[in-house]
Amino acid sequence: MDTTFWDEADRLLIRYGASFTPRIIERARGAYVFDREGRSILDFTSGQMSAILGHAHPDIVSTVSSAVASLDHLYSGMLSPPLLALADRLASTLPTPLGKTLLLTTGAEANEAAIKMTKLYTGRYEIVSFDRSWHGMTQGAASATFSAGRRGYGPPIPGNLALPTPNAYRSPFRTTDGAHDWEAELAYGFALVDQQSAGSLAACLVEPILSSGGIIDLPPGYLRRLRQMCDERRMLLILDEAQTGLGRTGTMYAFERDGVAPDILTLSKTLGAGLPVAAVVTSAEIEQVCHDRGFLFYTTHVSDPLAAAVALTVLDVIAREELVRRAAQLGEQLTDRLLALRDEHEVVGDVRGRGLLQGIELVTDKASRTPADALGTRVTSACLDRGLHMNIVQLPGMGGIFRIAPPLTISDDDLYAGLDILDASLKAVRHEQ
Ligand SMILES: Cc1ncc(COP(=O)(O)O)c(C=O)c1O
Asked: In the CATH scheme, what is the code of domain 3-57+322-432?
């Protein structure tokens, strides 16, 4: 432990969350980060769920170097060829009419822009999202974020309403045979929304797989029904694919599984593969109406050529290295291994997710399903000691939920090595008890 470093961190930094990982990281390459003691740590969270090409991918290194040297950042009203190339390429990955792009920097910012466009377009202001949602830390996005961070900051933006998160493992909505009755849950949730609405329902803003909410995959059919419910109320559907977009779940976009397209799509984390890039994509019709009504979203880094070049390279590498297929294939192996862990360990209650975005939920025992927050912390630390960085959901009652989202470029061997460490850590913690 380098006490000077941590003393200096205490003296100099604003703490923005629960705790820092107790390692000083000096270098990152491929699927690994390396600490000051020279220990390699397998990065099962792709940084902050972003570095889908691993760290320091040669194509990204070369793109950033040449863009910084030749065309980095411009006056916000200036356009450049990389921006159009990116917008065109993004549109080619999406169903029509999703063809108009706004290039930004962070996920919260993209959701902020999407919410503003929705309000202008519909003339209404109520935004519906899940009660375990995470859409970002700026005011509009945070008001639509129900999983954390609501207390102590004064009033959220009026008009944000919540739908129950369809958590198959924990939902009280059950059919007579005990299966998750998501249809009843959604109908009940929307009835509450309708009842609370001030008559100004504008949009549903949701993640296809809630990540910070505990890796909750929307049940097949859910998104289609939600789309219908939005259409019935002339609400827009905004999908936030910050974590699920760009191949991670085994399809280019998670919404493809359901054959349902959003009116507005927001992309961030994976689009920059670790660098700050985000985008809003919508139809020409929505864009036109917003423009006619004076849509304003001038930011310092809007349309930056550097960000555009990076995102274009990310899309190139995904296509060239066939990473969507790779995520699907590796995802199947990951599921098999996680299910084997569930069979072996009494404390592994649930396995869920898709492709290379999966989660396991630790419980005190399978029968009671009692959340095991403290156990989550101990397993995380046992994994770190053995060279694996795993991310627990840092929310009360959810501290036993691990998010597993390695880079899509991870080798089979590294994926298996990480899962072996997880297995060994679960055993070690059990033996300590
Ligand atoms: C689904 C989702 N949307 C939006 C955000 C916010 O993105 P950012 O932190 O880049 O603002 C996150 C971040 O965790 C996220 O997971």
From this structure: 3.90.1150.10
What's the gap in Å between 344 CA and the centre of ligand 1?
34
> What pLDDT shows up at residue 33?
98
CA–CA gap between residue 406 and residue 333 (Å, rounded): 13
Q: Which one-letter amino acid corresponds to residue 353?
A: G
One-letter amino acid at 401 equals I
pLDDT digits 0-9 by tens, 329-377: 999 999 999 999 999 999 999 999 999 999 999 999 999 999 999 999 9
- pLDDT score, position 433: 65
Atom of ligand 1 nearest to the CA of 108: 11
**How large is the C-alpha radius of gyration of the chain?**
21
Cα–Cα dist 32/40, whole Å? 6
Tokens of 285: 């019709």
Beta bridge partners of 238: 205, 264
- Taking the domains of the chain in order of start, what are their residue ranges? 3-57+322-432, 71-320
In total, the chain counts a number of residues equal to 433
Q: Which parts of the chain have pLDDT scores under 70?
A: 1, 433
Round to whole Å and give the CA distance between 161 and 127.
6
Burial 324-341 (b: 16+ CB within 10 A, else e): bebbbebbeebbebbeeb
The pLDDT, as a whole number, for residue 391 is 83
- DSSP lists the bridge partners of residue 280 as 102, 266
Q: What is the pLDDT, as a whole number, of residue 1?
A: 61
Q: Is the CB of 400 under 6 A from ligand 1?
A: no
Q: Catalytic residue numbers?
A: 134, 207, 240, 243, 269, 403
The reply to whether CATH 2.40.50.140 applies to domain 71-320 is: no
Ramachandran area for residue 161 (φ above 0: left; ψ -120 to 50: alpha; else beta): beta
- Distance, in Å, from the CA atom of 177 to the CA atom of 202, rounded to the nearest integer, reads 36
